[in-house]
Design brief:
The complex is a heterodimer. By secondary structure, chain A is mainly α. Helix content of chain A is about 75%, strand content about 0%. Chain A starts with 8 loop residues before the first helix and ends with a helix. Chain B is mainly alpha-helical. The N terminus of chain B is likely disordered. The chains are: A mainly alpha, B mainly alpha. Chains A and B meet through helix 9 and helix 10 of A and helix 1, helix 2 and helix 3 of B.
Chain lengths: ~250, ~160
């Protein structure tokens, strides 16, 4: 059951370290890059490293790692605006290529698809024998980590930015997507706590502890996501309703 | 034209405009403080802890269900509050989030949450108390008093 030293996690570790070094390099070369964004991105990489080397055992430890890799780290990484930094650092033709690549992501960069990736992933992991399988196969576990990291990053990016996204939906639409994610996450964690429909061959006490962590940890991560959304929104340029008649301007 | 432009940005968000979003947001965040701090961390009470004992499985299940409903309402208030605020914003976000008006109304909302929760849930329905026990009346009154202070402080701050 102990998956603290899974060999394939090394690949992700190496990836996180490379990301951090590359980002820092680009940020240093640019010079005028926001320190806040740098701190956020490096914190995201650090969270990944901590989660991957976490020397915990059992289901509660799994949940802590899952929350960190699937929710906290992706948010911190997305708030680092790595794509914006990349676009500002590379020559224009290469930037255009990145832009075209981003435009291709139009299909994935939408709240419904990112919700399906995240919530579908949760459902498959906890309501099918997949979880038991991942405890025996480090490779499968690595794939699950990668899936939640990417799906979580896409969701944080679509909902909160700050990187440019093709046809980003309106703020109310993004709030609805966040609401759906919150409700689903809470329902899954309560079903897990009650042991309804879940397929988790772990001791009851551990399952309950994991579900509790998922419930409250998820809440905190989602509140942070809401704060990120709010801190990044832009005001639509328009006249407030009724002012055209009543305001002192006219 | 220059005058009209200045007119638009200085009268950023009329005080009445952000009263509702501020209060709704405050109610939601006040609910979070209650839900996370009192229900979960301190485990002083659950939503129905007077009606259903939290020491039996069935009772705890009923309370967990009710806490889940409470959790949903809290989240809805936060998300709806943010949405309302966004729809009424006419100024730079920094101006809005830094404004005393908004924070004042949010404190009013938190205080209102405490007052309504204290009056209806603790006093009238009696479905739970802040901290059950021989001194529960004082805890409940303290909760109400705190709510009143929040409303008063928020009211002063918002001007």
């Amino acid at each position: 059951m102990n998956h603290a030293h899974h060999p394939d996690g090394g690949l992700l570790l190496l990836g996180s370290a490379t990301l951090a070094v590359t980002y820092e390099l680009f940020a240093t070369v640019r010079g005028d890059w926001s320190r806040r964004r740098t701190m956020s991105f490096l914190a995201g990489c650090a969270l990944l490293v901590v989660a991957l080397t976490w020397d915990g055992d059992g289901f509660r430890a799994h949940m802590a790692v899952h929350l960190t890799i699937g929710m906290l780290a992706p948010l911190a990484l997305a708030l680092g605006a790595p794509v914006t930094l990349l676009l500002r650092s590379i020559p224009r033709p290469a930037g255009r290529a990145v832009g075209r690549l981003l435009a291709r992501l139009r299909g994935v960069a939408n709240p419904v698809v990112t919700l399906l990736l995240n919530l579908g992933g949760l459902t498959v992991l906890y309501f099918t024998p997949l979880y038991a399988w991942t405890t025996r196969h480090p490779g499968a576990q690595l794939l699950v980590h990668v899936h939640f990291l990417l799906a979580g990053y896409l969701f944080a990016w679509v909902v909160a930015g700050p990187d440019p996204a093709p046809r980003r939906p309106s703020v109310p639409a993004r709030l609805v997507a966040l609401g759906v994610a919150i409700a689903f996450h809470a329902v899954v964690s309560q079903m897990m706590y009650a042991g309804v429909f879940v397929d988790l061959p772990v001791p009851v006490a551990e399952r309950e502890a994991g579900a509790t962590l998922m419930y409250y940890g998820g809440d905190i991560a989602e509140l942070l996501l809401a704060v990120a959304l709010v801190s990044g929104w832009r005001v639509r340029r328009r006249w407030p309703r009724g002012r055209a008649v009543a305001g002192p301007v006219v | 034209m220059a005058g009209s432009r200045r007119g638009m940005t200085t009268s950023t968000t009329p005080a009445s405009g952000i009263a509702l979003p501020g209060i709704v947001l405050g109610v939601g965040l006040g609910g979070f403080v209650d839900g996370i701090l009192l229900h979960q961390l301190l485990q002083w009470h659950h939503l129905l802890s007077t009606r259903y004992s939290v020491d039996t499985v069935d009772g705890l299940r009923m309370n967990t269900f009710a806490d889940g409903l409470f959790h949903t309402v809290t989240w809805l208030a936060v998300l709806i509050g943010i949405g309302l605020l966004y729809n009424r914003m006419t100024a730079d976000r920094r101006q809005v989030w830094g404004s005393r008006t908004l924070w004042g109304w949010m404190l009013v909302g938190w205080g209102l949450f405490n007052l309504v929760e204290g009056l209806i849930d603790h006093q009238i329905l009696g479905i739970h108390h802040v901290h059950g026990g021989p001194q529960q009346l004082w805890w409940d009154l303290g909760f109400l008093g705190f709510g009143a202070v929040l409303v008063g402080f928020g009211w002063l701050l918002r001007r």
